[in-house]
Amino acid sequence: MNGRYDVYRHILEAVEPLEDVQVVLSVGKNINPENLGPIPSNTLVVRSAPQIELLKRAALCITHAGLNTTLESLAHGVPMVAIPIGYDQPGTAARIAHHGTGEFIEVDELTTDRLRVLIEKVLQDLSYRERADYFQKVISKTRGLDVAADIIEQAFQKYETDNLANKDSQLSHHGRW
Are 143 and 40 in contact (CB under 8 A)? Predict the structure, then answer.
């Protein structure tokens, strides 16, 4: 997913003229930062970054609209610009835009100029930050991530219990023969 040099180049070129913006671009293990070409002076390129710590201070998150990053951004009240690549990301990106917590652009339509316009729009229009703040409060109040984790854990426990009971039943049934 994060082996798209073209996407990273568009991000780098889009943020370069934004003088009052500091960018941390995390490229993962599939990209060699040296192959990205010139890096703007306002950008730090790393293979990995402490995402939660950065989101605590971020004005914007540029994301591929993976569910984890989207939820973490909202949990910190950070609006987004999404560039979905595949899987469930287009649907998540559409929800980001629908709920007013950011904008998105399809990867096939991505250009440096279009991306810069979206970045500037989300940074300048306070309604995106306000909507992200609203969802931050909702997530905090409902403990949405904790509740989801609890439900998943309960489902696994039920599966394990049902599976053990089924195996015990099979063993006692076979023991009668």
Answer: no
